[in-house]
Specification:
Order of helices and strands of chain B: EEEEEEEEEEE
Radius of gyration of chain B: 13 Å
Helix content of chain B: under 10%
Strand content of chain A: over 45%
Helix content of chain A: under 10%
Structural class of chain A: mainly beta
Distance between the termini of chain A: 36 Å
Oligomer: heterodimer
Number of strands of chain A: 10
Radius of gyration of chain A: 13 Å
Mean pLDDT of chain A: 96
Shape of chain A: globular
Number of helices of chain B: 0
């Protein structure tokens, strides 16, 4: 079974910072990776799929890259509404999550 | 507007059963793969099960295989999860989710969840 490992699991950052989250797959998954954002008490929201395709309505400060076994989610300039937990996914497995908090 | 609304959650004793429902609206339900995803309190996301538009393709996580059954009724735009032999580790918020563009993944719309608590 494929496993996804996210790093870091916790990240403290300031508004305006550039933030990068990494997701590593235990085997080659080509570009079959999605990223979600989840805020407390809310359902997850799809941000990016196929590793780098921005979901409709998602701000352009979010971007995804990678293929094979290593992927990144980048927020170019962190906004107050971006403080949340982020998950990567390859259908069945989800990554463990990265919580982004205010420094 | 696409909406997914779960119901049927509650408190159940270990070994008991529960049936979750998810009502879809605002889209052509039978065009889409549908899924159940759960989240234990304070924990991450775990995919539970998925079902193709015509129920011809069904998949389960190993953790629930043989105990949970996914089904759908396209005429009622509804998705179901029959959960039997429930265990404490099944305690979670259960989300219903839709596959993007009629694909198996990713999941573009999610409900707000139904809470299942397994405890004596």
């Amino acid at each position: 079974d494929i496993q996804l490992t996210q790093s870091p699991s916790f990240l403290s950052a300031s508004v305006g910072d550039r933030v990068t989250i990494t997701c590593r797959a235990s085997q080659d998954i080509r570009s079959y990776l999605a990223w979600y954002q989840q805020k407390p008490g809310k359902a997850p929201k799809l941000l990016i799929y196929a590793a780098s395709t921005l979901q409709s309505g998602v701000p352009s400060r979010f971007s995804g890259s990678g293929s094979g076994t290593e992927f990144t989610l980048t927020i170019s300039s962190l906004q107050p509404e971006d403080f949340a937990t982020y998950y990567c996914q390859q259908l069945k497995p989800f990554g463990g999550g990265t919580k982004v908090e205010i420094k | 507007e696409v909406q997914l609304v779960e119901s049927g959650g509650g408190l159940v004793q270990p070994g008991g059963s529960l049936r979750l429902s998810c009502a879809g609206s605002g889209f052509t339900f039978d065009d889409y793969v549908m899924h159940w995803v759960r989240q234990a309190p304070g924990q991450g996301l775990e995919w539970v099960s998925g079902i193709s538009w015509n129920s011809g393709g069904i998949a389960y996580a190993d953790s629930v295989k043989g105990r949970f059954t996914i089904s759908r009724d396209n005429a009622k735009s509804s998705l179901y999860l029959q959960m039997n032999s429930l265990r404490g580790e099944d305690t979670a918020l259960y989300y219903c989710a839709r596959g993007l563009l009629s694909s198996w993944y990713p999941f573009d719309y999610w409900g707000q969840g139904a809470l299942v608590t397994v405890s004596s």
